[in-house]
Design a protein that fits this description.
The protein is mainly beta and 168 residues long. It has 2 domains: 54 residues, 2,3-Dihydroxybiphenyl 1,2-Dioxygenase, domain 1 (Roll), CATH 3.10.180.10; 76 residues, 2,3-Dihydroxybiphenyl 1,2-Dioxygenase, domain 1 (Roll), CATH 3.10.180.10. The strands form 2 sheets. Strands 5-8-7-6-9 form a 5-stranded mixed sheet, covered by helices on one side. It has a 4-stranded mixed sheet with strand order 1-4-3-2, with helices on one face. Strand 7 and strand 8 form a beta hairpin. The N and C termini lie far apart (50 Å). 11% of the residues are buried. This is Glyoxylase I 4. InterPro entries: Glyas_Bleomycin-R_OHBP_Dase, Glyas_Fos-R_dOase_dom, VOC_core. It holds the Pfam family Glyoxalase.
């Protein structure tokens, strides 16, 4: 595998999310996901907040048209999302139930290795995944494989089980 880094990238710095309500989003990312507010430049002439934890930043930007933001109602794990590793998937699931946050649970199995995934939305419909994805080893593709089509041994030996958890 060639180490090709044409832009000399080092790491993910932050993601930026448009918010209908900056206050609701700050509350969610601080009290649900454990981020903390950090100073942002005073020269910005728009409403927003910077949050940090787990080695990445989340920059929240107040939408100029909160009513015009798209409404996403269905939790679909195949949509764009931010994924976080967790220490205890059962602990996260218990807290989501306790906080009455609707989520979808997937269990992915690949050759006897299991990954649990919990998907839910932030107040603006941005998808969040909490998982124990580090159970699956990171294996580079061989030079004869395409990222879209690679015959990996025992590739047929995997499945996904999905469960939608209704909140009362």
């Amino acid at each position: 595998m060639a180490n090709n880094n044409p832009l000399q990238l080092k790491s993910l710095n932050h993601i930026s999310l448009l918010c209908g309500s900056l206050d609701k989003s700050i509350d969610f990312y601080v009290n649900i996901l454990g981020f903390y507010p950090i100073k942002r430049p005073n020269s910005f002439d728009f409403n927003g907040a910077w949050l940090f934890n787990y080695g990445i930043g989340i920059h929240l930007l107040q939408s100029e048209d909160p009513e015009g933001m798209p409404k996403i109602l269905k939790i679909n794990p195949k949509n764009n999302h931010i994924s976080f590793q967790c220490e205890s998937i059962s602990g996260v699931e218990s807290r989501l139930k306790q906080m009455k946050i609707k989520y979808v649970k997937n269990i992915v199995e690949e050759n006897g290795i299991y990954v649990d995934q919990l998907f839910f939305h932030d107040p603006d419909g941005w998808m969040i995944e909490i998982c124990n994805c580090d159970n699956i080893p990171v294996l580079p593709l061989s030079s004869s494989c395409s990222p879209f089509n690679c015959n990996i041994p025992n590739q047929h030996n995997h499945h996904i089980q999905q469960q939608i958890i209704p909140m009362e």
